[in-house]
Amino acid sequence: MKTISLYVDKGTILNKIAPESKIWYVIAAISIPALMGIRWAGIGMIAVSAVLLLYGKVLRRTLPFLGVSGFVLLTVLIIQGMFWWGNETPLFALGPAVFYVEGLRYALGILINIINILMSFCVLILTTKPSDMMENFVRRGFSPRFGYVFISVFQIIPQMTDTMSTITDAQRSRGMETEGSLAVRIKAFIPLIVPVIMSSLINTKERALALEVRGFNSRKKKTFLNEEVKTAADRYIQIALPVLILAAAIWRITQWLA
Amino acid sequence: MKRKLWSLTFNSSTLVLIPAAIGINYLGKLFAGLLKLPLWLDSIGTCIAAVLAGPIVGAICGAANNIIYGLTMDPISTVYALTNIGIGIAVGILAHKGFMKNIKGAIITGLIVGVVAVIISTPLNIIFWGGTTGNIWGDALYAWCASQGMPVWISSGLDELVVDVPDKLAVVLIVFAIMKGLPKNLVSLFHSDEEIESLDHTDDVNKD
Amino acid sequence: MAGIIIEHLKYKYPGTDRLALNDISLSIEEGEFVGIIGRNESGKSSLCQAVAGLIPSFYKGAYGGKVLIGDLEVKKVPVDELCETVGIVFQNPFNQVTGAKATVYEEIAFGLENMGIPKDEMISRIDGAMELLDISRYRDRYPFDLSGGQMQRMAIAGVIAMQPRVIILDEPTSQLDPQGRDEVFQAVQNLCSQGITIILVEHNMEKIAQYSNRVILLDDGRLIDFDSPQRIFSRGDLDQYGVEAPVYTQICKRLGHKMEDTGCYPVTLEEAKTVLRQRKGG
User: Fold this and answer.
1) What ipTM was assigned to the predicted interfaces of this complex?
2) Does C8 map to a domain?
3) Nearest Cβ partner of B185 from C13, C58, C64?
4) Are residues C122 and C203 part of one domain?
């Protein structure tokens, strides 16, 4: 099955608990360190996420995510280390490039924050089937039509990339150059993408028609073929996490008042 | 042209347009990467949706686009949903005002959209990344500005500007070309508020 | 109960001046298999979509006259209710996959979930539809991984599961290879034998001749003729409407061999054989 979803069913408890519980986890993991404003809280959350990911047997699959942001994080470290406005105390120099304690410390804060966000998101997205998540939302009253829009993206994108590789191959076999100077490459972009865009826009009509005749706009209460994804623990998780967030907020307020 | 600008009713065609637009965004990004173009080209679909179906649909495309990127490729990109909402709204309004009718209007649209993107993205860049964008040219400019002692928001804004304005200009011009080539009868499908006219002239006689 | 009556149907797409359907009146009996033929843009798809209620509700535009299915007036019933009476299948099977479901089984359930059908009934309807379309063995396959013919049968199953009394197929095999085409026609014949009224647009005149009880000939939005395939294909002015008779009819026309009972030219291989045998014997 082709989908851009990164979900894999490992049969762990993380696959079985309700998607809403995991969404609460993401919110908590991001907001608690932000509310507390302590670097260690962020590091603590990263550790919690790592344990959960390990337990869900998907820790290794988080690496590509870190890779995507890794390069940008590196530039953050370099640029802030060298040029941050508050830089005063040189730490070390690589040739003419001088790195400062303050800038590096600032960059470290960014690093922790980003990695925390990445890892907590991974807890959700590597263990949750997007359609299960959306079905749960629809059960709670989210519009089924918008639910459809959301889920269909996961399947439509791979279909479009398939079309794209067909076109790329066809254009290449016709001798179109996709390498070389910038002008050559820009010229190549247009004939590659325009046909796919055109056909996908034209196809929207038939797809919309086909959906309408299958009750897409129905105002009846929707029923579901699949059972709801949830466990007995979900109720407690969905109480405990908001309480923790609230506690962090209260702690912060008392800090201010003190 | 008496279409409502802020209509909140969505017909099926409009809803189906949203995933297609997100797919188009993705393809633009993929092709730009494949051809190593110095642009992102990842908002073509959002702009098409905004031109066809108005600012609200453009905004929804922009938001859904980044939420789905966030859930699949790059969680941080979720926060840039705000930028894409801004792009969708700006293009939708300008198209409604007739800017996308000729090439001159399209260029102006591209420039305005680029500036809108910079205004929204810069604070996000500062909050999440300390002001840099990850684009080599933009970040080099940032480093230079910072070394000259300029404030973060100027360095960061310029960093974003040199990347965003050319990108949005290119995107809007591509969208302009595509709109010229789309069949007319397709375009009318996305207007949710059209009425059905009657061709019955003698209907009153045999009413039941 | 589910005969179709069309009275003075007129329709213009939005932003156009031409009548895509121009004063069409006809009636179709329940359980009939009706073919629609005519050149491109003659109004075939428009007529289909008018019967399915998508014209005018989906396109808007300008509409006149009436389409009745049983005692339902199509224009007055929203498409999401009408789809339990009349179903429609389109050309491109790929565009009819919802893109929201992971298996063929779930895909067929899509319409039933929207209609709020209880789960038990949903399951029995899906099983029934899969059996009728002969796709039970693909139950757990990913919808986009099917072949064209399988995908189109899945699309038909998705529509059939809503239990309509009328099924409209608008060039259902034009995007398929010969094998896929035969699979779909076999399936359509199964539907017809269940007493479901079938309306079929098809470019392959041999297939039209083979399956239809009656054939609608359209040109420029007008109803030219509505009669048995034998009479339609025996007309001398077919090329004026951009239609070519089945090869068997063409051969027998060339030879001047008509069928004795109807006085028409044969339209299927079987009929042609009979005529030639009679000639030989006589």
Assistant:
1) 0.94
2) no
3) C13
4) yes
